[in-house]
Fold:
Amino acid sequence: MTNEAYRQMWENLNLDIPAHDGLLGVLGKFYGDIYMSQQGRLKGMEYLDFVLSEVHGLRIKELQDAKAQGRKIVGTFCVFVPEELTLAVDAVQVGLCAGADAGKEAAETLVPRNTCALIKSFIGFKLARLCPYTESCDLIVGETTCDGKKKAYEAFAEHAPLYVMEVPQTKSPAARALWKEEMLRYMTKLEDLTGKKITAEKLAEAIKTVNARRRALQRLNRLRAAVPAPISGRDVLLINQVSFYDDPVRFTASINTLCDQLEERIKAGEGVAPKDAPRLMLSGCPMAVPNWKLPYVVESSGAVIVGEESCIGTRNTRDLVDESAQTLETMLDALADRYMRIDCACFTPNNERLENIETMAADLKVDGVIQYALMFCQPYAHEGIKVEKRLTGAGIPSMSLETDYSMEDVEQLKTRVEAFLETL
Ligand code: BJ8
Structure:
């Protein structure tokens, strides 16, 4: 498609064209500095570069084509929304980016200033008419996870076709029953939206599709644990980010091809960083696209990131849905069980997360953990204290950083990260 045709498409979506041009300009520069400057990248990353370069172009065109064929587009902000159900009505699910400082002033007219950057970002993108994904959605699904999101959705609902799923806050049997009910309610919502019925056959196929993507990402995570690290943390974060909006079948195939290349690289003993580069793991809040600030700071300080304990990381890929169920009812149970294993800090108590962090840090043989929290994020800031104690007990050094999406603190973050690396 020509630039002119893309422009027409963005105009049809009612984007603020001059502001959108500005955003693409900044993003392109940012991507070039952070990604294209890396040495020794795998050939398979070209696919990701292409996807990113067409993030507001070709993929949006695909969504418009899907709409023209009568398919619905569903936007989400949280890994709790079961994509399997969305796919089972032949709808397309996309994660809505909430990783840039866009439309902040407009967002602050709807939510308090001391709200985390992720929430302000999704509201800002909508109010400033900057996101072609948000504008393509027939339905946007929110969820009652943290208080900030819950209350923000009340305001957001006045501007977008919003539906909210009630996510329980504990892992009790009553909470599991509530979650199953919520999944059934979402299923009815999707059936009403699309006029299609979810059948056992359709759901089984969707479960396999999403599991295949999780398996490809699990494979990637196992391979990147090699010494020396065969792929940068920046690139793996990008892969995880792209997994939220690319076509799942195409994405899975591309990541498996990339993994084949990684296997060869590992066999040859090659890495993206020297063998003795400090190996770090990030843990905490999700880093939505295009939030690449901290990984860039860490890796340009000489360390390599070998794991992300976050929703744009292993929290989204660790658990599979049991594929042995044969009936719709048992498949829904398998789905409910899988989603109830998510160890988001919004749960209380949330001891599984402590276990998972310790195990992950040991499996990846990390030299240290950086806990990452967005400013004003209560759930992850609270858990940060427990995580630090747990890691200290296990003899694993850690540090905590709080930041937002602005670039003002880059130097300060770099100083703190370099000081941490010196202690390892
Ligand atoms: S399952 S982590 S994607 S809720 S950073 S908005 S918690 S104040 S993002 Fe999340 Fe789902 Fe949980 Fe994962 Fe609130 Fe914190 Fe902001 Fe957050």
